[in-house]
Amino acid sequence: MNKFLFDKNFTHCLRAQVYPDKNAKQRIESIKDFCVKYGFNNVIMMFNGECFNVGHITNEELKPWIEVIKEAKEEFAKVGISTSINPWFEFGHLDRGRTLKEGQNFGNMMDFEGNSTKMVACPLDPNWRKYYIDQMSYYVSEIKPDTLWIEDDFRLHNHDPLKFGGCFCEHHMKKFSEKLGYNVSRDEFVKKILEGPCKEREVYLEVNWETLDGLAKEISEAVKKVSNETSVALMSSRPEMHAVENRNWDNLLTDLSSDGNKIDRIHLPCYVEISPKQYIYDFNQNSMVVRSFIGDDALIYPELENGCFSFFAKSARFLKFQVESAIPLGLSGMTYDIFDFCGNGAQNEFGYGPVLNELTPYLSKVKEFDLKPSNLRGIVFPIDQETVKNRITNKDFFSLIPDDFQCISYMTSFGYSFELSKEKSFKNKTIMLAMQNINNFTNDELIELFKDNFIILDGYAAAKLIDRKLGYLIKAISYKHAKNDDGSTSYEVSLEELGGISDYKLTSEKDNSDPYTFVFDEGVTIKSKLMKYDGSIFGNGVAQGDNFFILPFEIKGKPSEQFSLLRTYQFEKLDEQLKGEFIKSSVQGICSYLYQKDDDKILILTNSNTDIFDNISFKFFGFNISDIQIVDRNGEIRNVKHKISNNSVIIEEKFDYMSTVCLILKSKKY
Questions:
Q1: pLDDT band at 670, cuts 50/70/90?
Q2: Which of 219, 331, 512, 546 is the most exposed, fewest CB within 10 Å of its CB?
Q3: Contacts for 468-473 with beta carbons within 8 Å, 24 or more apart?
Q4: Paired strand residues for 416
Q5: What confidence tens digit (pLDDT) does each residue in 450-474 have?
Q6: Cβ distance 50 to 342 under 8 Å?
Q7: Chain centre to alpha carbon of residue 101
Q8: What gap in Å lies between CA 631 and CA 635, rounded to an integer?
Q9: What pLDDT was estimated at residue 4?
Q10: Quick one: which H or E segment has residue 228?
Q11: In whole angstroms, what is the distance from residue 388 CA to residue 420 CA?
Q12: Contact at 8 Å (CB) between 328 and 604?
């Protein structure tokens, strides 16, 4: 049995590469000492990685790596540390000047323009597939690791020097033609895919899925045959990229699992230190989306990487922030790429070990709450792993990449808790429709959606309702769409006093997306106007009805101007109309993650600001609170001094910068 997977404590896993040379023994000792000193339970041994990569390695070239890993495994076992393995690539990340070796008659990946790699193999190629499965069986049977990690080159995109869009080699073109029932040329096929939803696009996505899922099944079966001690786990990257390969996350992990344990190393969105606000923005629209696609029953060990492997690239404080801000994923543990893959061993100079060791009691206690994506409560963001099937494109493969997930980060930056759902039917919830997630609903589903819920729409989604003859759902007759910075609109002005300021203004130029203005029937309250630079009116801005609220811009990317206090004040007036259970933190940049846990709720608050706050404050809607407890950094649960007034909470505890708090909100008993 894979023991470390079922450790009740938080599991720290160190990814490391030990080059098989005269320094190997010293490197193993330094890794072992580091792990013992700072509470790491598992070491993931890499091989044939990065600068030592020789392309598709032969068994003869592999032998020294196997021997050094076996030696390390034996040393680690003496101190109770388990060993996993992580070959650096499957069919290859990118060429980097490497080529196929003599006798490696592998078919290479090819992009939609016919450009081919020189080393990266097509996962449909039977020669490569046999080589890979045979070799994997060899090193798994030799090492018998507790976990085999499949690297994130297990994808059809991002294989430099190929252009984005997947593989269109002869193997793939044959599959595409077979499913279409006629021989299709590469140019003709690509043209059809990009024109819009059609049979060709369905076939393209179906073959993409079958390519990777078929390989996953082969990997699982091969590992099962040679080692019943070994689990198979997957590294995954950004959800919008994997959407273009039609990834069914739950099915893929199920099919990859050799022992029934679904394990994913979710990508955390930075390799070097960035603004904590930018980091959490990316985290919510990337890592949290992947977590919801995977489902409740997976074990989550995110990847935390110090990409340039220096203290300058990533400080210990930022590393700590990444770990604890990942708590909402429902962590079993974490994997760390924090020391150089050149094989220098562990480096204590960075100061990473002490901060992680200090954090462990807190992480282990929160792990006991068993946070699941299905238990999230807040504004609902409908997500769909098949969204690419419904994309309206600009006739290139980049426009196939979904923008559906980006509105999540926008609303959460204002402090709203949220839930992500693959469902299409809801009752008494607040739903956000923004950008092309509206295209994943049928007309009938949209009509039902507006019956029992409150809907927040961006300009694109509202315009799409009119295009689909559903404008009556928002009492809209027509719309105008302009391009950002084309001079159509220069600023927005509030029609109501906000924050004590009359005629509150917000630029509609610069860091905004495209503006929309709508003409409405009676029964809609216009909250602002969009103005031209000469003071004339372009049209209506923010609009509100009994069951909807419309923002007059596309919400995509990171529209920095849309974080204005104008929006904060407008949302404050809106809060009481929203439906469902949710939390709203009192400060922008403090993100809220609310989970139902039996009769109570668990609230994770993440302070992505670089400010320290004297107290913890938030508002709660749709439920009651009788008492509040906090999880201390020593892993203890204690009561906190707090004040509850109406639906506002103030807790007399300092809220440190770049940190989290975990609160237990006890339900009110009647």
A1: very low
A2: 546
A3: 468/443, 469/443, 470/443, 470/446, 473/446, 473/447, 473/548
A4: 584
A5: 999 999 999 999 999 999 999 999 9
A6: yes
A7: 36
A8: 6
A9: 62
A10: none
A11: 18
A12: yes
Bridge partners (DSSP) listed for residue 539 = 530
Element (H, E) at 487: none
Rounded CA gap, 73 and 51, in Å? 23
- Looking at residue 66, its amino acid is I
Return the DSSP state at 51: G
User: Taking 80 as the threshold, does the pLDDT of residue 514 lie above it?
Assistant: yes
For the chain, what percent of residues have pLDDT higher than 90?
Answer: 93
Q: Is 312 exposed, middle or buried (0-12, 13-18, 19+ CB in 10 A)?
A: exposed
Sign of the dihedral defined by the CA atoms of residues 48, 51, 52, 53, in that order? positive
Q: What is the mean pLDDT of residues 241-268?
A: 95
199 falls in which pLDDT band (50, 70, 90)?
very high
CA distance 350 to 340: 12
The residue type found at 661 is V
pLDDT at 309: 83
Give CA–CA dist 164/141, Å, rounded: 36
Write the pLDDT tens digit of every residue in 51-60: 999 999 999 9
Report, in angstroms and rounded to the nearest whole number, the Rg of the chain calculated over CA atoms: 26
**Contact residues for 550 (Cβ-Cβ < 8 A; gap 6+):** 456, 457, 458, 459, 462, 474, 518, 542, 543, 544
Helix, strand, or coil (residue 434): coil
User: Would you call 50 exposed, middle or buried from its count of C-beta atoms within 10 A (0-12, 13-18, 19+)?
Assistant: middle
Return the SS3 of 344. Answer: coil
DSSP 498: B
Give the Cα separation of 99 and 90 in Å (integer): 15
**φ/ψ (deg, to 5) at 157:** -125, 170
Rounded CA gap, 238 and 130, in Å? 29
What's the rounded Cα separation, in Å, for the pair 361 and 324?
Answer: 12
Confidence (pTM): 0.96
pLDDT tens per residue across span 580-617: 999 999 999 999 999 999 999 999 999 999 999 999 99
Are 532 and 488 in contact by the 8 Å Cβ rule? The answer is yes
Integer Cα distance of 352 and 316 in angstroms: 5
According to the model, what pLDDT value does residue 504 have? 96
Q: What angle in degrees, to the nearest 10, is found between the helix axes of 24-38 and 59-77?
A: 40
Give a three-class secondary structure readout of 373-419: HHHEECEEEECCCCHHHHCCCCCCHHHHCCCCCHHHHHHHHCCECEE
Work out the mean pLDDT of the chain and round it to a whole number.
95
Q: What values do phi and psi take at 217, rounded to 5?
A: -65, -40
Tokens of residue 468, six digits: 């689909």
Across 539-561, average pLDDT: 96
Q: Specify which residues 660 forms β-bridges with.
A: 606
CA distance 484 to 500: 29
HEC string of 92-145 equals CCCCCCCCCCCCCCCCEEECCCCCEEEEEECCCCHHHHHHHHHHHHHHHHHHCC
What spatial distance separates the first Cα and last Cα of the chain, rounded to whole Å? 46
- Within 10 angstroms of residue 639's Cβ, the number of other Cβ atoms is 11
Q: Is the dihedral of CA 144, 147, 153, 154 positive or negative?
A: positive
> Which amino acid does the sequence have at 596?
Q
pLDDT (tens digit per residue) in 349-399: 999 999 999 999 999 999 999 999 999 999 999 999 999 999 998 888 999
- The reported pLDDT for the residue numbered 55 is 97
550: its two tokens: 């419309």
Give the separation between CA 483 and CA 573, rounded to whole angstroms: 29
| Residue whose token pair is 């699992």 | 257
State both tokens at 278: 């930018």
Angle at 448 between CA 443 and CA 454, to 5 degrees: 115
